[in-house]
Queue: 2 jobs
Job 1
Amino acid sequence: MTTNATAPKTLGKVRPHQTQNEALVFEKSSPGKRAYKMPPLDVPAVDAAALLGDAHRKTPGLLPELSEIEIIRHFTRLSTWNYAIDLGMYPLGSCTMKYNPRVNEAVARIEGLAEAHPYRPDSLAQGILDVIDLLQRCLIEITGMDAITLQPAAGAHGEFTGILLVRAWHESQGNARRKILIPDSAHGTNPATAAICGYTVENLKSNSEGGIDLEALTRQVDEETAALMLTNPSTIGVFESQIHKIADILHAKGALLYMDGANMNALVGKARPGDFGVDVMHLNLHKTFSTPHGGGGPGSGPVACKAFLEPFLPTPVLCKTGNREQGTGNRDQGTGNRQGLGTEGPGTAGQLHWIYDRPQSVGRVRAFYGNTGMFIRALAYILANGPDGLRQTTEDAVLNANYIRAKLEDLYELPYKTASMHEVVFSDKRQAAKGVKTGDIAKRLIDYGFHPYTVSFPMIVHGALMIEPTESESLEELDLFIEAMRAIAREVDETPDLVKTAPHSTRVSRLDEVQAARKPILRWRPTE
Amino acid sequence: MRYLPKSPAERERMLAEIGAASIDDLFAVIPAEYRLDRDLDVPRQHAESEIVSYFRAAGQKNATDYASFLGAGAYRHYRPVIIDSLVQRGEFLTSYTPYQAEITQGTLQAIFEFQTMIAELTGMDVANASMYDGSTGSAEAVMMAVRVTGRHKAVVAATVHPEYREVLATYAKHQSLPSTLVGYDRETGRVDLAALDAAVTEETAAVLVQSPNFFGTIEDIPAIAAIAHAKGALLIVSIAEAVSLGVVRPPVEADIVSMEAQSFGVALSYGGPFCGVIAAKEKYLRQMPGRLVGQTVDSTGYRGFVLTLSTREQHIRREKATSNICTNQALVALMATIFLTVYGREGIRELAEHNLSKASYAAATLGSQAGAKLLFTGAPRFHEFVFQTAETPTLWSQRLMDEKIVGGLDLSKWYPELGNATLWCATEMVTRENIDTAARVLAAAPVEA
């Protein structure tokens, strides 16, 4: 859809095209079709019914029966109904939808890595342990922390692990304490996490700049405060310039500073949380380190901490032979090989192995060692970038956000004028006056060929438009996005209904969410 | 940097448009003392070819050509080729959680199909869109039972995967949720029903068992359900080996099923990413953790799918949410969905029967070697079995490794009372030759002088 009627027809981001209809896979099934063939059994076949007795399954599950070509078409057709980073800009604020390099996928599927059983002896797992070890050392260096666990399976799981560390440390000091402070701008997982760790959540009201109100913080931090969960840069994309004072206020009362690393894409190679007073934090490998979101996972949420929290890390931890005492606190080793990886792979000589005997540990947060396949991808990303690439990536992410801000702030309300880092948050104040809400503008963006920004978050901004372009957008794509946003602003003035009923170019129009929740249909059932 | 789509001139142009003199202006908000004025000490920028070489070397260092009898919650099954062909489509791979339903119908319909398949296989009414894995799923299922019953105690079978139990302990510790461990019958390897009956009280929120359990034995689910339900407790059945459902009766008496779906076409990948999922009776729906996809219609009446019942979730309910889970394992759930579509109604049974046959042969062959004693023969099992050896496992496992075979898992760490017991698994990927070789090596214990 071009916005300029005189523009050549080859320009513009999207034109409508047909997609195939596709029924549910169950509706396409016919008994007797096959997409598999078992090899001949090389051992005697057993009589399952006789062997299992009462435990034998009499009625099979109603799984579909199709041929291979139908399955390929089914899922390929479904895929064409999705928007994706591979198709264009995906400016979801706080989600860091950056390019997912394909070499990551290729190396994660290398047989010796993809086929490794988690209980194979450590002596047969040295290759993957090298990978884990190098990633750990890279992430420790990037965050400026002292120790790390890769076990958490996603960001919220990392928060859970991090707050468990906080709790374990306070307990070791004689008092677990009672409450966690959480800014009103925080993501919903923060309070949900504090609650499942047995803490009371106390809300911290943001100041007029959307940041931490130091006076309120000083008032609210007391001997019962376990930690502050802080997202930095904040969810409005602003760096807490008073960060060291925040840490000092907390530490003076014995409370800890937890950092939600969701917005780490604004900091890598430019500033390190470990240097500005953070005690414990999580990373999202599926945001900052380019592992794919996959339609909602898998993620990976490593937790990095200062040395005093290291004894509490989940079991097991990775150690090098002769290095038992050091645990994961291997900051001094650096990444071992700044110039290259050598032919023997990374790191120094010595066998890596898992240590389970950790009396102060918070315990396990997941079976095995974490989402290892994501570690491989994240390390491939770090290797592809190197120190210069990581810094340039951060700079480009911040440059892109500020460019969008500069190009749209005349048309969209900027509730906080503070300098933006990697994302910019507008509000729909001017458009709402015409009856058009942020959600409507977001839906209209779809017609222009973009994924919407994050809608109605953070909660401190009424009608928020939270835009995070990431570093992966070219100037051309950014300009198209800006042109689309400006065109929509005009439509709000001239043809608001067009925006309010968007999208108009999708396979399905706005879906009835109320009906979905009132009478939930969560599975297919055969018609009688 | 090859992933960054900007020329130096474009960067300059953009800075000029912003009104910044240099890129450093945009970072001026960070106090100077916290700005990193050096390169990160990470490996230098590598070419794609170097990256591939590095990981290939790591794969080779891992040793690839070993046959394996390891199971214990991570199972090696054949992965049909089309799984990776399809999940690597960028539209699935590089899409976010489907909050914008109009442009994520592909992911949404696939999850709806996943939920249906899991419900069909487990005998439950509904299933969610996935959990991190089987271990965290079990812990979340117990917390769900606490919300449903308003009770605060759990009874857990010692035959549940030990690492699942450890994860549950981590989750339960700060929620005033004590749990009682119930032992197992030495003849059957099943949970001790008398001990279970004694442990379950009017305060028990949930009984958690695994079936097939950690020893590979299939639990007597109807009997366990009767004990739990008699006291008003919910029964949670954890399933670590999803392929078993092709031939093993589903736990229809359970209230909640927590399953690890890794066996459905997901690579071992040294333990993750895997694919947990929670299924349950419909009446407990509102207390389910995690995302759910529901069917609805669009404004013109066409069928479509949306994320639904999100008022249970953290982004709406914050500290009152049913769980803090946000990102789950969507792409891995898609792998499972494709796997189940490939095998289908008949294939999943045939596959499970092959596993049953391999394990029967392996148990008979390995368990009949001199000095070996097959345990838990008093109950049916799926594809895992436990036997004791006269030698300590470290001795014969080294001999097996010399033959490029990884033998069973030493159980002494978790079940010292079983002596030299090891847990073996034979999926359809294990050959008769592997089994016969392992038997020969086991039998070749050095003769004592």
Note: Residues 393-515 of chain A form a domain with the Aspartate Aminotransferase, domain 1 fold (CATH 3.90.1150.10).
Job 2
Amino acid sequence: MTQSLTLSNISAHYGSTQVLEDLSLDIAEGELVSLLGSSGCGKTTTLRLVAGFLEPTAGTIRLGDRDLTRLPAHARDIGLVFQTYALFPHLTVRDNVGFGLKQRGVSSAERTKRVNDMIERVGLGELTDRHPANLSGGQRQRVALARALVIEPPLLMFDEPLSNLDAKLRVEMRVEIRRLQQANGTTALYVTHDQEEAFSISDRVAIMKEGRIMQLDTPEVLYSQPANAFVANFVGFDNMIEMEVVQEAGDAVRVQMAGGHMIDLPKDQFTVPSKKFTLAARPEGLLVASPESKIGIPATLGMRTYLGRAYQYHCETASGTMLANGPLMTPFESGNGALLVPQPEQCCLLPNKA
Amino acid sequence: MKTRIHPVLIFITVVTFLFLLGPLVVIIGASLSDTSYLTFPPQGLTLHWYSNIFEISAFTRTMGTSFMLAIGGTTLSMLIGIPAAYALARYRVELPSFLGNIFVLPILIPEIVLGFSLMKSLASGFGVPIIAALLVGHALIVLPYTVRVVGASLNSFDFSIEEAAVSLGCPRYKAFFTVVLPNIRAGIIAGFILAFITSLNDVSISIFLTGPGVSTLPIQLLAHMEQFFDPTIASVSVLLMGVTVAVMAVVERTLGLTFLTK
């Protein structure tokens, strides 16, 4: 029943503004892929194109062996969950869930059975005769989920489904969404601006910016090996240091940082990708150490904040302000000089475009 | 602690209510007077002038015309107004903002000008039959009410609901009837009633468009008053008032009058 989704070279415009540029995306059968990005990056546009509420100016959309590109929205057979839930206010929970089956001409008896099964599965047993106005946010989202799932669509799509819920419920509901999606083995496209949400439930995540996919990969790869500075910054590599290779020095590479300072990077820890590159480091990837240490970036420590697992320092260096973490046992005083030592497992080296 | 209300405020309130309700009390009183001329306070009490309405064929005939026009004109304005309000709300971003204001024009243009121009164009210009011209005229003057009131309920309508219906396999046109209409029902009823009352009580448009053999109740009332000055005029007025109040009461019971003031 479940099918793969393929977007090929999709472009979309609002008037003369281009919102998607030559976007291609493959979602395998049963896979959940998230589109992640800030508002205006084109993630919702992509979803609406697949749903059939917008038409692409170029490219094709295929679901399984069907070409959806010019198919009217109501004939696409896609389950949709909206940010605002979009339940039918004039219908009960039962009729909301049964709406899609009714459109498909499913007999009354079978409809009742399938609707009741689905309502049980999402845990809304006692609420079947209520109207949406008498449900809590979480319950409404469950109804919306049941309504989309009961038609057994080959593709499920979610448009920021949890952003109207409080933090605790958000975590609960995303687990629920993942559970139901995996139980049905349904292919799913999930749109969100919340990184934690996207990473926690997705098989793969596409990080988007200005109508293009910057990187599409598993959360693990995105988190540890971002492909470019944008993605690196997005996943928490707060420090970006421009570097240029000066010379090979035995088992280390001597590089010059923006601002002029030289530093030796051990070859067994860092693989330099090109002559000019960017060292992206999380705050925990720059360890604050005493000035007597062997290598590191000289810095003047500024404000210190307590994070529970570490202290974090705002540091002034010749290459600009940086965020670096220091050990709990030996807090440093602000105003003192220190060295920031790059930790290879919390850093990544990105080649600079020529 | 008791809230003190300023005596001046009480005075103004009382005066305002007297101003609003006083004439109505006079009319009701005059309609019950046992004299052959209009007078207040009534001298003697009789319901004769009420039964008299139904003995004057011009009143019964025009009453029929008025109700027919009110229902027909309002229905016509709904057929134009609901799709217009829908388009204005659905494509708020895409459509130029002046489009919405066009539908308010019939309120802004002096009705007497509107009536005159309708007479010139429809009746004299195209030779449209009187009843058809009246129907179009009434539809036109109530259009602002239907567009605004239906529009108000559409503005609070979440159009994702319509998209949800479409995504579940319901074609667009069908989704309008199965999902959109039921959820703006209250606005449609409120708009219908406002328009109905406006049409029923209209004088300035109708006076230009009525002609030989076809008239409306308010126009007949004017004509009657020019010839006779008996309390029938008052009783017809009370009857019109009664219909209006009854309709309002139904709205109040079913939807709450706040719909009209929103």
Note: Chain A touches chain B at residues 51-53, 72-80, 82-84, 86-90, 99-100, 103-104, 144, 147-148, 151 (CB under 8 Å).
